[in-house]
Amino acid sequence: MSGFGRPQNPGTKIVRTRLSDQVLERLQERIASGVLSPGEQMPSEREVMEEFGVGRPAVREAMQRLHDAGLISVSQGGRARVNEIAADTALRSMDAVARMLISGFPNYLDHLKEARIRFELGMVETAAERATADDIAVLRDNIEMQRSKISSPDAQEFIYCDMDFHRQIAEISGNPIYAALSEAILTWLSAYHVHLLRWTGNETTTLDEHAAIVDALEAGSPAKAKAAMKIHLERSADLYRHTD
Questions:
Q1: Which of 241, 236, 243 is CA-nearest to residue 158?
Q2: In this predicted model, what pLDDT tens digit does every residue of 49-79 receive, in sequence order?
Q3: How far is the C-alpha of 75 from the C-alpha of 113, rounded, in Å?
Q4: Does residue 113 contact residue 238 with C-beta atoms inside 8 Å?
Q5: What count of other Cβ atoms lies within 10 Å of the Cβ of residue 61?
Q6: Residues in domain HTH gntR-type (predicted)?
Q7: 130 found inside a domain
Q8: pLDDT tens digits along 202-213
Q9: CA 131 to CA 169: how far, in whole Å?
Q10: pLDDT number for residue 197
Q11: Which of 57, 85, 113 is the endpoint of a domain?
Q12: Cβ(69)–Cβ(93) below 8 Å
């Protein structure tokens, strides 16, 4: 029996947390609640030290962790400022770890490609329900822009248009989570994009597949859009691979 007349339960023990953790939690609460709003300067180290009664090391560690999480930006010689918090903020904080996983464990690239297919199939279904005439025009302009890059000596120009096509569909969905995830996935994949896309005839296949996707979006058919996207992504999955 404990001193309170009850059996001890390890799950109820008070855990001492580091001072930097406590400072971090307080500052995160102020950012989340809007007390510290986007664009506003963070309090100085001395102000935080005096308010919370902690030393400089705890404050500096908390500030560094806020920066690593993408919650604040630090400029040379200036005071940190609060960032605009959006879906892509959270994903940017994962960027370094994601790149390490994909680089260090080859099977993670396969996992990412599989996840991308599942993700974009749902995304294009949503886009088919929401696409406007203006959205369709933007996508068709993208296809023509990509067509103009076929003869470019820089293969990256064609590849960029290809990725931008998928970004635009994410935007059409109207869901900021889709847009943020799409940008993150495309960024992580881009380092492993080989130039198979530029094999003779392959570029026109890509354009034809994009056109089929746009036709389905214009028709407002989620099922057709999903089927067209599935064909495109499954064929193009081999474009992303470890080259060593």
A1: 236
A2: 999 999 999 999 999 999 988 899 988 778 8
A3: 36
A4: no
A5: 16
A6: 17-85
A7: yes
A8: 788 999 999 999
A9: 9
A10: 46
A11: 85
A12: yes
Q: Which residues contact 67 (CB under 8 A, 6 or more apart)?
A: 73, 74, 80
Would you state the structure tokens that stand for residue 226, as one six-digit string? Answer: 């999903």
Structural domain containing residue 61: 10-85
β-pairing verdict for 81-82 and 72-73: antiparallel
Q: What is the pLDDT of residue 242?
A: 59
Helical spans, DSSP H, in the chain:
19-33, 45-52, 56-68, 87-93, 95-104, 106-130, 133-148, 155-172, 176-190, 202-218, 222-236
How far the first Cα of the chain sits from its last, in Å, is 62
Kindly report the CATH number assigned to the domain that includes residue 55.
1.10.10.10
**In whole numbers, what is the pLDDT of the chain averaged over residues?**
86
Phi, psi of 46, deg, nearest 5: -65, -40
Q: Same domain, yes or no, for 117 and 75?
A: no
The alpha carbons of the chain give a radius of gyration, in whole angstroms, of 24
Residue 106 has pLDDT above 80, yes or no: no
